[in-house]
Amino acid sequence: MKKQILCGTVAALCLLAGTAKADVTAVRNNSQLNVNDEWGYYLDVYNIGGANYYKLRDIICIMNGWHVPVGLEYNQSANRIDIITGGTYQILGTELQATGQKATATARESDIQVYVDGKRMSFDAYEIDGSTYFKLRDLAGPIGFDVQYDAAQGQVAIYPDNNGFKLLEYMNDTYGTNLTPADAPKDTTPQFDTTTKGMDIKTALNQAPLNPKKTKLDDLNQLIEQFMAEYFTPDMDTYTKAKVTYDYIIKNMTYGTPDFAFDTSPEGNAGYMFLTHRGVCDHYSAFFAAIMRYVGLDMHVVNGSTHAASGGMTGHTWTTARINGLDYVFDPQIDQNIGGKSNPTYYRFGKPYSELPGKYEPYAYNDFE
After folding, report:
1. Cys-Cys with 318: which of 1, 77, 265, 331 at CB 3.0–4.6 Å?
2. Are 105 and 129 in contact (CB under 8 A)?
3. What is the pLDDT of residues 66-76, one digit of tens each?
4. Cα–Cα distance measured from residue 344 to residue 347, given in angstroms and rounded to the nearest whole number
5. Where are the alpha helices (DSSP H) in 100-217?
6. Domain that holds residue 149
7. Torsion angle of the four alpha carbons 289, 291, 293, 299, in this order, in degrees rounded to the nearest 10
8. Total number of domains constituting the chain
9. Which pLDDT score, from 0 to 100, does residue 369 have?
């Protein structure tokens, strides 16, 4: 309901990318786009060369919602987009949604031709994951809005040229709602801090507040309790429990594809590892995370990519402990791969991302229920 009203009523064709020229690295920007001091959006936004790039259809959808009618037409054979001020735009259903999960993405320069009311524009455009992104300030004047940036808050704001129209006032008066800016969607994108330096992991773990959590599987909980009774002692601190569990995995688990189909949730992966002592990165990570959640740490299973020995990045799963807002990486499968079962290296034991540059690209959490 909110999306339909905020987008307005509208006609449109697909927005595709043109012929590629060059690839660059785009850094995801998770900050909010504030509109007219009324509403905030968390969109797919990337920073390229110090400028923020947005999907064209997201911006046009917002403009129509704030009574700035803008249409869009696409001619694939001519590799041309026409933006029509005063025109109409039909929502596609995918606008105003943040779908990207990578901290960085490959952006391919596009030579798509863009016209506004028949006039050829000189816009920088990039294709990222099948969508075309444009520099926000390039779009502002031709479409009809102002851009402001609050450096202290790291927030971008736009103000549609709509003769003072207030969308929330209109919504509340017309539909009997009671919307305020506080009702705007909240950011649900995982924040992966790759720059902040952490403290010594022993200090961090022993200072971390503990909130023990069981899993949703009673049988798995029993296995975890048996492990803790056998390998933990009452005088152990959190750091020692983490190291004992990490060492156990490295010395006793064998890397290999599972022998039979199983529930692939973190709970299922941990249970499989308990039963077989065999698995891949998903199982190693879930096993460690399940036990340390039981101890009380704020553990997360993370999907993403890690640096491959042969070069480049490869898909991978690891686990992190979040302590004082910072994620510390624990990756027993990689440490076992580096040092073998008899010689743990601890290269990936309790390290913040800042201490592992180029080693990880976190995409999303795959957490326990």
Report:
1. 331
2. yes
3. 999 999 998 98
4. 9
5. 136-143, 167-175, 201-207
6. 2-183
7. -20
8. 2
9. 82
Burial of 154 (0-12, 13-18, 19+ CB in 10 A): exposed
pLDDT of residue 175: 84
For residues 233 and 264, give the distance between their C-alpha atoms in angstroms, rounded to a whole number: 31
Residues 165 and 20 placed together within one structural domain of the fold: yes
**C-alpha span between 98 and 101 (Å, rounded):** 8
Return the pLDDT at 133. 95
Categorise residue 259: left if φ over 0, alpha if ψ from -120 to 50, beta otherwise. alpha
Helices (H), 208-331: 218-231, 238-252, 266-276, 281-295
Examine the pLDDT at 93 and tell me if it is beyond 70: yes
pLDDT for 22? 65
**What pLDDT is stored for residue 19 in this prediction?**
37
pLDDT higher than 80, residue 6: no
Type of residue found at 362: P
Q: Report pLDDT for 98.
A: 74
Residue 2 has pLDDT above 70, yes or no: no
- 321 and 235 in a common domain: yes
Res 177 pLDDT > 90: no
Tell me: do 175 and 225 sit in the same domain.
no
Pairing of β 80-85 and β 113-116: parallel
Euclidean distance between CA atoms 208 and 298, whole angstroms? 9
Contact 56, 132 (CB under 8 A): yes
Handedness of CA 213, 216, 218, 224 (dihedral sign): negative
Residue 9 CA: distances (Å) to CA of 67, 70, 139, 207, 224: 10, 11, 21, 54, 55
Residue 288 and residue 336 in one domain? yes
Same domain, 63 and 125: yes
